[in-house]
Every structure is written in structure tokens, then in C-alpha cells.
Amino acid sequence: MHEPRSDKPVIVSGFFAQIKFFIILTLLAGCAGPRETVDTEQADELRSVIAAAREAGEAGEYERALDLYMSIMNETDNVAVARGAAQLASAMEDWPAAGAAAERWLELRPDSQSAAQLAVIAALRQNRLEHSVKLLRSEILSQADPDASWMAAIALLAAADSDERARKGLEHLLRMGAPLPDGFDSYQRSRLARQLGDADNAAELAVQAYSAAPDFERAMWASHTAEEAGQAERALDFLRRAREHRPDHPEVALAESDLLRELGRVDEALQTLDGLADSPEVLYSRGMLEQQLEQTGPAKESWRRLAALEVDSDPDRHAWLTGLLAEVLEMNAEAQQWYRRVGGELSTRASLRRALLLADQGRIDEARSLLSGLRNLPDPEMVEQAWLVEAQILVDQGQADSAIDMLSQALVEMPGSTALLYGSDRSPTRGLEHHRAGARTGAGKSSHSRFDGLGPVQARACRAGLAVSAKGRRCGCPPGNCRPFD
After folding, report:
1. Among 84, 24, 8, 98, which Cα is nearest to 60's?
2. What average pLDDT does the segment 259-285 reach?
3. Which is more confidently placed, 58 or 226?
């Protein structure tokens, strides 16, 4: 399905997790000595306090460290002290201290959105609604892009740790200032409801927003919220309304095609792509749908058109989709060739695919060597996938015990990995073997898998959890628990 623009901007709420020793030390280390012009005696005193705060933090005396930073925060113009105090206090969930420090940080750096965001959240966590709304209006909604500003405000309200408080804050915000455009209030309420996990309410409010002032953006939002609420037909209806607003918009047609395919209306999904100009996304989707309909000849013709396409923008994505469709069509030599062309962010995923194809050809040592190299990359997700793919290869070779041993080793290196836990779930029958069997035949039947009902083409594209839609989205579930377009 179409993936709308995210309404979750980056905010500083990452500090709200439970206190971890290394995080605290990092925050403490970030507070350097005074940089502003002060007399030598005062500078020495400030350095002494900062050093004492660091020592307290290293000893696990976080409250003392925070007290020391707060005691000098207003005596120095060094923003690192105020910033460190704000971040340390938020990590400790000391919201009064976090609020005071964040506002000092904001005073020293009026253009800091991180300071403003933390100040807002601290006010919300203390149930200071009027103050939080004042900060939202003066520091967040004053930014140049109104829609992005409201998205940020909604995300901050959702971090209030109380649904009721978040909703009250939004109502305060909506009542202040100039009169609002038609349906604007329903639109923002829908956004907040979605952030709070209230899918049904988000969908109903989105319909109200569209009814009050129909336009493309609101039609797309209504479709997205309807889909999240499990209202597929309504989602489809609003996609078609969006196409009425922008009939030449290929992204909407692709989204409609995806949804029709998910509803099992594959013929209609394919027809929706008729008339669209050739692009990597359109030809990839067309080829996948034709193969799903067992139209192998047309699917290969779509692949040939995709391979011949001259692409100026994002050639890596073009190569990735061309390789993926070739693999689904069991054109493995061509898939290998195109995967080698993939660079940039997609290159590691292409390398994972190449490893699986090498293993299919019996070139096990080459496949394992490639995967071993990928495990040296800084991306934890790709490292995790490299372990899982190699485990699958070992199972294919009849070495299930070795696969489990290897995943146990991987869990020592990545102890928080749910996917690795899934893959090593006590026996290969419950994890790896069922996944790989499903990927080979489409007949994997396991209570731990959603391969049930997938044919061999779909299941093949699911291998290693790397399946993508034309939009390039990936599921977050363990390997084997995805569909080729998800």
C-alpha cells in the first residue's frame, strides 16, 4: 500500500527510556568546561563543579550529578551545561528539572528545536497544559512550514504520557489564535488519535476532515487511517477519490493496485496500472502481479522493459527492483547481475539476496564469505539478517544443529534480537526449517509462520524477510512472516 508522509518527526523523546549507564555517562561527558569569557577564579570553580558531576555520574550517583549541573546552570552561558542537565534530567524522568534546564537551554539557543521539544514534553509530563500550549505556539508552530509544524506539535502532545492530557492540550491549541480552515480541527484530532493508537477514531475523524474540505491530502489520509482501522473498502474508496483530485498521480494508482491485490482482486490490481507511464515501480508491480496470475510470458516482458529502462534518478533502486523481479521469475543469473549493480543504502540487502542465490547454485563457501563480510557493517538490522540468512543456508545443507549453534552465538552478540530468538526457537523445525520449506514450496505449515496460503512465487520473494513493495517498504516481522509486496 501507499505509504503516506510520516507524521512522526524526530523528537527528543528517545531520552525517556529507562536509565542506562552508558547513556548517562555520554550525557555527562558532553558537558565540557566553561567557554564564555569569565574571570579565571569563576572558570576554575565551574570546571571543578563539572568535574565533580562527572565523578558522581561515573559512581552511579545520578541525582547528585544532576544537582551539581543544576546548581551552575544559570551561572554560565555554556550551552553544554544546560543541554546536559536537561537530557540527564529527562533520562531520570525528573520533569521539573528537565523543564527548567530545557528552558535555560532554549534561552541560550533560541533556535534549538531539540530544546523547545524537550521543554514542551517536560511541561506536559508535569500537567502544565497552559504552559505547554504556550511553548507549542511560540516555539513549534512558529516554524516556516505550517503542516510540518502541526505534525511536530501532534507528536509532542502524544508524548504527554496521558491520552486525556494529550487531547486536552490539542483542544487548547486549536482554540487559540486565528480562526481555523474548515475541517482543520478534525484533521489534527485524527492525527493525534492515530498517534495514540486509536485507529477507529482516527479513521472517523479523517472522514469528517475530508467531508468538510475535500482535497488530495485529506483523501490520502482518510484512506490510510481507514486501512489501519481494517476498513479496506473505505480505504479503497478514498484512494479513488484521491485519484479524482490528481488523476495523473502514479503513486495513488500504485497504492490502489496494492490494496486491490491485498483484497485478492489481482486482476483489478493489474488493470489499475494500465495507462501509467513506465517507471521502475510500475513495471516491477506489473511483473509481480502478472506472475501472481501465472502470466509468465507477460511477466518476463515486463521484466525486459524494466531492465531496458533508462533511469537518471535513483539507479540503485532501479537495479534493486530489476534484480528482485528477476529472482521471483527464477531468472537467477540475471538477478545476480542486477544485484551486483546496486549501491547505496540498498547494497547490503542486495548482497543478502546474492548470498541466497549463490547458495542455491551450491556455492556455499562464497555465500558464507559474503555474509561474513556483511556482519562487519555498522547496521544492526543487516547484521541480524546476515546471521539469519546464513542459518537458513546451513539448514538447507542438512546442518540444522550447526544453524542453531550459530544463532546461539549470534544472540550472545545481539542479545536483544527478537528475530534471532525466533530463528533459534529451541528446534529448527519450529523456526528455520519451516521458514525455508515455505520459501521453497509455498507449503510451509507452521503455527509460527504466516506462509500459509502463499504460493511458491510469493513465498520465494519472502526469503530472509527482505520482500518489498514497489514503494520499497519492509515489514518488521521475523523472517518468513511477510508478503512479497509488504
Report:
1. 24
2. 95
3. 226
**Rounded distance, CA 331 to CA 335, Å?**
6
- Domains in the chain, please, with CATH? 1-173 (1.25.40.10), 178-246 (1.25.40.10), 248-342 (1.25.40.10)
CB distance 169 to 132 below 8 Å: yes
Query: Averaging pLDDT over each range in 163-172, 410-419, 427-436, which range is the top one?
Result: 163-172
Closest CA to 270 of 247, 233, 249, 295: 295
Q: What is the 3-state secondary structure (H, E, C) of the chain?
A: CCCCCCCCCCCHHHHHCCCCHHHHHHHHHCCCCCCCCCCHHHHHHHHHHHHHHHHHHHCCCHHHHHHHHHHHHCCCCCHHHHHHHHHHHHHCCCHHHHHHHHHHHHHHCCCCHHHHHHHHHHHHHCCCHHHHHHHHHHHHCCCCCHHHHHHHHHHHHHCCCCHHHHHHHHHHHHHCCCCCCCCHHHHHHHHHHHHCCCHHHHHHHHHHHHHHCCCHHHHHHHHHHHHHCCCHHHHHHHHHHHHHHCCCCHHHHHHHHHHHHHCCCHHHHHHHCCCCCCCHHHHHHHHHHHHHCCCHHHHHHHHHHHHHCCCCCCHHHHHHHHHHHHHHCCCHHHHHHHHHHCCHHHHHHHHHHHHHHHHHCCCHHHHHHHHHHHCCCCCHHHHHHHHHHHHHHHHHCCCHHHHHHHHHHHHHHCCCCHHHHHHCCCCCCCCHHHHHHHHHHCCCCCCCCCCCCCCHHHHHHCHHHCCCCCCCCCCCCCCCCCCCCC
Return the closest-CA partner of residue 376 out of 366, 365, 387, 367. 387
d(CA 135, CA 443): 57
The closest alpha carbon to 53, from 45, 65, 71, 67, belongs to 65
What's the average model confidence in pLDDT over 370-377?
A: 92
- Is the alpha carbon torsion for 82, 84, 90, 94 positive or negative? negative
Q: Write down the pLDDT at residue 84.
A: 86
User: If we measure between CA atoms, which residue out of 68, 81, 83, 75 comes closest to residue 38?
Assistant: 75
State the cell numbers at 312.
537518471
The better pLDDT of the pair 178, 181 is held by: 181
Report the distance separating Cα 136 and Cα 149, nearest Å: 9
What average pLDDT does range 353-382 have in this prediction? 93
Are 480 and 471 in contact by the 8 Å Cβ rule? The answer is no
User: Distance (Å, rounded) from C-alpha 156 to C-alpha 136?
Assistant: 9
pLDDT for position 350: 95
Task: Kindly indicate the confidence band of residue 3, based on its pLDDT and cuts at 50, 70 and 90.
Answer: very low
Average pLDDT, the chain: 81
